[in-house]
Structures are given as C-alpha cells and as structure tokens.
C-alpha cells in the first residue's frame, strides 16, 4: 500500500442550497452523508441520497449536484493508492480501471468508513492502527462493492478520434500555459467553432470548462503539499489567487483554506 499521507485526503463538509455544475475529479471520492439530503446526478442516473448512505464518485465520472442541503464526510484517495491496495490483495499489477458502485447501502461498509475517518482525526491512534483501518475499509470495498469487467482507463475517452486527440493534448499541457481554443483546434485540424460543438456534444462541457476543471484538480494536489496559494495560482494558470479560490470553491464547495489533508494535519 502506498503512503496514505501522500495519496489520500479528507474533509468534513456542510453544504446549504448548493448546486454544482457538471464536473469530474481525477481521484476517487467517497462520501458518507450524515445529515440532510443530496440530489445527485451522474452519467447514468439521478439519485436522492439521505443520511447513512455511502456514495462513490469514480475518477473522471461526470456528475452534478442539484439544489441540496447536506452534511457529509469525504475521503478522497488517488487512483494510484486504490490500485496499490488491490495490487497487494491479488499480488499482481493492476491493468484495468477499478470502478466502485455509485451507492453503497451496507452497514459494515459504513462502520468501516467511520472507523477509518476517526482514526485520521484521533491523535491518540498510532500509525499502525490507521494503516489497518485504511486497509480494512478499502479491502472490503474492493471485495464487495466494485463493478466487474471494467474498461482500461485512458483519462476521459471519447468515441470520436478528433476529441480523443484533443484530450490527449489538453491532458499533457503545462497548466500555467494560456491554452486557447485556437491552439487546440490547430492541433486536430478543425475549426475552433466545430471543435467546440463536437466537444460539448461528446462530453457535455466546453473545452474551456474541461481545462478549468483540470486546473482545479491540479491546484488541490498542490494545496495538499503546503505550496503557497499565490504560487499555486500561477502554476495552475489562474489569473490571480482570488480567482483561483473562487473557481476552486465552485467545483469543491469549500475554499483551499478549508481543505483538510492528512499531510496538512498528520495523525501522529
């Protein structure tokens, strides 16, 4: 198992009358609701989630939140972290995407989730006990709540070759670069107007929104490393620190200051 302090973060969130536009994360998002109701929509279904339900958002899964008030505990492990646990379980390298079920209504999973969360915040618990609680939760989830026959991950895939080529280009840029529609459309030999149209038809968001989400996800990783916000704003291509904070909150529901990562709050 990889070091959880570098590959996992958590936060206790309270949201009031919140709408989140369509977006994605480049990590797993485990959320246990303990108060209120969440109206949630992913690429397949709409859900009305209430207290005691464990929700999972898989990496690169588009989702939205619809005018909801709820409180929840979020635990966010990286793709590499989850892969490493499964790799330890089966003693083999992971070649396929690991995809969890969206809704987990399982009393044992809920208890293990709570135990893991409280091990993070209770300073009386030692590192060995934390490791054991993390392993127990994720091993249980991997054994009982994954979707079988998952496809190989390739960031976000698209049935259209031009869109796939554009995504490969967009996923490999230096985030501080000022990437424009002209730049991207030039790479795939399409007019920027036609490119924007087919991109939104395929993914449901514009190329500009996609880049913005990538910048926010990258900013989150840097925040967890205690890098100054002004430097993060520059490195991630935001105009200034204030604008970055505004966009960060738009997609995460909290500001960078509120982000409690294990690296920022180690459990000794």
Pick out its properties.
single chain; 268 residues; alpha+beta; Jelly Rolls; Arc Repressor Mutant, subunit A; six-stranded antiparallel sheet; 10 helices
Describe the structure.
It is a single chain. The protein folds into 2 domains: 141 residues, Jelly Rolls, CATH 2.60.120; 98 residues, Orthogonal Bundle (Arc Repressor Mutant, subunit A). It is globular and about 55 Å long. α2 crosses α4 and α8 packs across α10. Strands 1, 2, 3, 4, 5 and 6 form a 6-stranded antiparallel beta sheet that branches. The chain has 268 residues and is an alpha+beta fold. The chain has 10 helices and 6 strands. The longest helix has 18 residues.
- Which stretches are low in confidence, meaning pLDDT under 50 for 5 or more residues running? 149-159, 261-268
Question: Can you identify the CATH class of the largest domain?
Answer: Mainly Beta
Briefly note the structural class of the backbone: alpha+beta
Task: State mean pLDDT (0 to 100 scale).
Answer: 85
CATH architecture of the largest domain: Sandwich
Beta strands, count: 6
Please give the share of residues in helix.
40-55%
SS strand fraction = 15-25%
**Under CATH, the topology of the largest domain is which?**
Jelly Rolls
Query: What is the overall number of helices?
Result: 10
List SSEs in N-to-C order: HEEEEEHEHHHHHHHH
The dominant shape is globular
- N-C termini distance: 19 Å
Return Rg in Å.
19 Å
